[in-house]
Amino acid sequence: MAAKKVKDRVDELQAQIRKLAERFDQEREKKVSSLEQQLEKARERVSQEIQRQRENLGNLENIQSEYRDKANANLKKQLDRARKSVEDARHRVSESETRKRLLEAEVRVLKATAKQAHSLAKVISQYEKDLEKRAREIEKKAKPPVKAAGKAPAKAAKKAAAKKAPAKKAAAKKAPAKKKAAARKKAVAKKA
After folding, report:
1. Are 177 and 126 in contact (CB under 8 A)?
2. Looking at the domain assignment, is residue 136 inside a domain?
3. Interacting residues of 156 by C-beta distance below 8 A, sequence separation 6+
4. Residue 72 pLDDT > 70, yes or no?
5. Contact in structure between 146 and 190 (CB atoms under 8 Å)
6. What is the C-alpha separation between 169 and 162, in angstroms, rounded?
7. The whole model's pTM is what?
């Protein structure tokens, strides 16, 4: 009987152990399935997050490429504008330099023309003076001499001597002036 009790007790303990093992297995399976579900959910969340990150990265790359394209287009426009500005500035500078050269040439021509006109005016003025002197001399020669008594002839002689002296000086001056005028005319002819 004692052996039967022990056997019953062993059987009972084994049954309890089996129940506990079954319960433990069930609990373990529940926990494992729960952990597997959590793990699956976590995997899904991670894959969704990775997918979102990939999409964000793709969007970022698209934005970067769009920004790069826009920046390149803006930079190209600015470079084109800068090149055009430089070309316009060069063109204006060359035009202004050409205009300056033309104006300088015109100034030189005007100065030369003014010199020639001044020289011609001097020659003409001198020629007019010479003509006036010759006209007076011819008029004096054409007038008949009037004889006056007493002091009048002496005065007339003094006047004539006084008039002849400047005429001689003028004649002496005329020779170099005529040479200078001829030289000027030759110089003007060479320039023209």
Report:
1. yes
2. no
3. 148
4. yes
5. no
6. 11
7. 0.36
| Rounded Cα distance, 45 and 51, in Å | 10
Least confidently predicted of 68-77, 80-89, 158-167: 158-167
Asked whether 185 and 116 are in contact (CB, 8 A), the reply is: no
The total domain count for the chain is 1
Domain assignment of residue 145, yes or no: no
Chain CA centroid to CA 8, Å: 114
- Parent domain of 172: 162-192
Q: Look at residue 174 and tell me whether its pLDDT is greater than 80.
A: no
Q: What is the pLDDT of residue 139?
A: 86
The neighbour count for residue 145, using CB atoms within 10 Å, is 9
Distance of CA 127 to the CA centre of its chain: 57
Q: What's the chain's length in residues?
A: 192
For 146, the token pair is: 């009037």
> Contact 181/118 with Cβ under 8 angstroms?
no
